[in-house]
Amino acid sequence: MTTHDPDRIHDTLHRERSETVSLIDQLSARLDAVIEATADSSSDDEHDPEGSTLAVERGHLVAQLERSRVRLDELDAASIRVTAGTYGQCENCGSPIAEARLEALPAARLCIDCASRGSARRW
Known about the structure:
Structural class: mainly alpha
Mean pLDDT: 87
Shape: elongated
Number of helices: 4
Helix content: 55-70%
Low-confidence stretches: none
Radius of gyration: 19 Å
Distance between the termini: 15 Å
Order of helices and strands: HHHH
């Protein structure tokens, strides 16, 4: 994508952003339903057969929401890089990010070498 039309890249990022916003809305609705179910249930979690299930589901949903919000931030940052003319350039070493990596992860900030060396979970 580094040599492609910026409009095409913006379209790809916009589509991924829309999908992520939709996912966040769905996850938020599911989390609200779990929280409501928890509020309606007995407060005695130790003896409630559904208590741990609801707690685990709530934990999974919260984690998925957090990951989705991070993804949204990354997609927004990628759009800024397109406008600035730095999209497709590794933020660490300055090398071009491989086309295949950008196709798989349009919000990628790092080339594959830098991403594999770092411990951070950033694209």
